[in-house]
């Protein structure tokens, strides 16, 4: 591993170190290989551990590294392309939408969700929890918020096992008029981190989708994806196969 000193560079120390480490990952490490511990790396490059952590966190954010419980920091495999474009004319829970339902309950909608749904703050909604897997790895979690007004035909008495299928079934009776999504970078909450096998606070990609029936918002989905292993794709043309670090290197 090269030992170029960040002090000789004009850019921030952590960013120069990130570049040096990225080059070393290309030349000297295999996917899944464990990096030396922070103390060894900091001593080798003559930097403070805080600077090293910044560089490692940046590489993790870019999908080059993974922090794994009980293992350490390893070289990440290439990101998996995950389509997040809703299928035209279909509601969540349609066949082959890629999600598996893991639970459903009634709870007060968070303030921003209530505002998006056009309901009173604190009003109870149906919350359908789902997970998405690629192979044997969970790459995404989701909470689908559905107000009572969107599922008026829902039976009053439902067992826990019947709740989610009934909500999704009733939702699909509505005529879907459109869906809009927004993506932002976030930090994994404890519950999401556990499902995604990440550390709390790890970078995640949050996709918020609003489903409309006529002029009303009938449901809101908040989906959380692993930022280190996922490349989110939109539309039906497939993913563009250019990774961030390769594009940066070419420039």
UniProtKB/TrEMBL annotation:
Keywords recorded for this protein, A-Z: DNA-binding, Transcription, Transcription regulation
SMART domains linked to this entry: HTH_GNTR, UTRA
Keyword DNA-binding among UniProt keywords: yes
Domain of life: Bacteria
CDD domains named among the record's database cross-references: WHTH_GntR (cd07377)
Domain HTH gntR-type: 11-78
Name assigned to this protein: GntR family transcriptional regulator
Lineage of producing organism: Bacteria, Bacillati, Actinomycetota, Actinomycetes, Kitasatosporales
